[in-house]
Amino acid sequence: MGNTKKQNLSPIDRKIRWRNWLSLTGFTLFIFAAIFFWLKLKNQPLDNDIAGGVQIPLRKVLNANEKVFSKTFSKQNLAKAYPKSAAAKVVRLNGALGLMTDLDDKNWRLNVVRAKGDTLKLTLADLQKLPKTQVIFNFKCIEGWSQISDWAGVRFSDFIKAYHLDKLTDKKYIGLVTPDGEYYVGIDMDSAMQPQTILCYEMNGKPLPLNQGYPLRLIIPVKYGIKSLKRIGVLSFSEERPPDYWFERGYDYYAGL
Question: Membrane spanning segments where (predicted)?
Answer without folding.
Answer: 21-39
